[in-house]
Amino acid sequence: MNSESQIRVLIAEDEDHLRSVLEQFLAGRGYAVTGCKSGKMALDALQTGSFHVAIIDLVMSEMDGLEVLRHLRSDRDAPEVLMITSPNTIDTAISAIKLGAYDYLPKPLRMSEVDVLVRRAWERRELVRANALLRHRVPMVTTISSNHADMVATVDQAAALASSDDVIVLHGEPGAGKNHMARFIHNRSGRAADMYAEVRSRVGVGDIFQHLCGTDSLPSRGRYRVPVSGLFQVAENGTLAIDSRLFTESEAGRLVEILKERAYSREGAVHERFPLRTRIILCAEDSDSWINSVPAVHLSIPPLRERREDIADIARDILHNSAEIPASSISDDAIEFLEAYAWPGNIRELKAVLTRVSLLSHKSELSIPDLKMVLIWESMSSETGGAALEAVERLYIETVLQRSNWHQGRAADTLGISTKTLYRKMREYGFIRPRKRKLARRVRAE
Length: 446
What we know:
Layout: E1 8-12, H1 16-28, E2 32-36, H2 39-48, E3 53-57, H3 65-72, E4 80-85, H4 90-98, E5 103-106, H5 111-137, H6 149-161, E6 168-171, H7 178-187, E7 196-199, H8 208-213, E8 214-218, E9 226-229, H9 231-234, E10 239-243, H10 249-261, E11 263-264, E12 274-275, E13 279-284, E14 297-300, H11 311-321, E15 329-330, H12 332-339, H13 346-361, E16 365-366, H14 368-380, H15 386-403, H16 408-415, H17 419-429, H18 434-445
Parallel strand pairs: 1-2, 1-3, 3-4, 4-5, 6-13, 6-14, 7-10, 10-13, 15-16
Antiparallel strand pairs: 8-9, 11-12
């Protein structure tokens, strides 16, 4: 294995022969090994280098294993610790586990057990680090408010189910808020302190079951083969929200079996099976027919066009909580304008529109003229031919001209075109500067 992919192991053992045996064995298995003959030397090595696993003898001169472990407790990047014990120090080894050690190795050591425990300790460290990383990336959702009767019923049922371990299937159109509801369920449950993860795309995933279940081993240049944990293990005791559209028909059948048996095997494993302790929430659309065979509780999220009474609160919540949106408020007449729109893309489309309108308008409060241009584009985006594009272009140019008080130089800069091109477009669309409009009306009247 190359140095970047090796598991780095620190050995602190004052018996020269045992330390040498461990160093040679673990190095032969493909680990990067550093040996120390005292606890103080081990702490010095930890200050100058990073290790995944530390094997520490409980009884050493100068500084014993428990003292080393106490020093490590304050280190966020500390390795997982395995304590070497003799038969008369087993009780002390149990105290070490209470202090944070992963496990202990009783003397006389069995090398196969050492190998297995080092691998498991490394896996645990990687899981804890991944857990901490993902937890900071997922926004907390503890409340969902609604004025729509069906949505209120769905939220109440979701809150009641949060404390259970039932698989939940959330039905709804794209963008309706299924992942938002999944986070709400997780954060209302007893699993809130553990990991929440989402699988929305197969991009970079490869084999979906390697991603979920993990692999028993991956080949490497050395003799040691590193197991890879899947999301079922990474999010163990937490919640995993999965988009059901990611599965082919054959893959869906296997997922259903896993959910029925509440157990899974890593890819490549022959006999070993793991209990499924992760709470599974499937985000599904009605076109996923196989979803009906999943042993689960099914909840439906109404589309936004059926929840027009919620649009005002959702829009204001988006403006208030989205860091990427400069605007902070929206006028009442603009809200009425939003409520009249069909929102085929649901809440996801509403957020995208508010984001684009805010970035284009550069205003703290959004109004109807700011919304019209983007919403016309949204309604025409599925059309083909020049008529739709021409209508959007005409409205865009007129909006920019109005905002620049019909100053063609500033408008051309905003549009990213030359003043000559802008003049041509104005003639094509029949635009007349306000002052010239009055003069034209007077001439016609005469």
